[in-house]
Amino acid sequence: MVTRQRPFGVTILAALETLLGILFLLGVLALVVARFRLSDVIPQVRLFPVRFSVVMILLFMLGAIDFVLAYGLWNGSSWAWKISLIFAVVGIALFIFSIFLRPGIGEITSLIINVLALYYLMHPRVQAYYRKDSAAPI
Q1: How far apart are alpha carbons 94 and 68 in whole angstroms?
Q2: Which residues have C-beta within 8 Å of that of residue 13, sequence separation ≥ 6?
Q3: Which of 25, 26, 65, 84 is surrounded by the most beta carbons within 10 Å?
Q4: Over its length of 138 residues, how does the chain's per-residue pLDDT go in tens digits?
């Protein structure tokens, strides 16, 4: 049985996806706390319970997707490679659009990270790790 060695950049991408998942779950926790604490301080918050619930569910789902994606990237699953490519392309498009709406360091940084991730995922060694090109050296 031939074992493939995971490229170091893939380890970094999996760690970043895990970190992003943790941040999404912390966002859910912050909204839960805010929902209960703010309703005592600001009575108008009680008028928007559906908005809080929808955002909490969305953040929880994004966090779960990030954990699953990190697991797939770590283990060299081809579906994780494909989804990461899709997320990188969508992220590039969204951040280019957001730079025109509200330019800032966060948008530029996110754009650079997505471009670098897309470039790295297209590298032959990384594609070989995800079984995309068997001729490339591992």
Answers
A1: 22
A2: 73, 84, 117, 120, 121
A3: 84
A4: 456 788 898 999 999 999 999 999 999 998 888 777 766 666 665 556 667 788 889 999 999 999 999 999 999 899 999 999 999 999 899 988 888 888 888 888 888 989 999 999 999 889 888 875 444 444
**Three-state SS annotation for the chain:** CCCCCCCHHHHHHHHHHHHHHHHHHHHHHHHHHHHHHHHHHCHHHHHCHHHHHHHHHHHHHHHHHHHHHHHHHHHCCHHHHHHHHHHHHHHHHHHHHHHHHCCCHHHHHHHHHHHHHHHHHCCHHHHHHCCCCCCCCC
Domain chopping of the chain, boundaries:
7-74, 76-132
Closest CA relative to residue 4, chosen from 77, 71, 84: 77
pTM here is 0.78
pLDDT of residue 40: 65
Quickly tell me which residue has 């779950």 as its tokens.
Answer: 25
Contact 127, 136 (CB under 8 A): yes
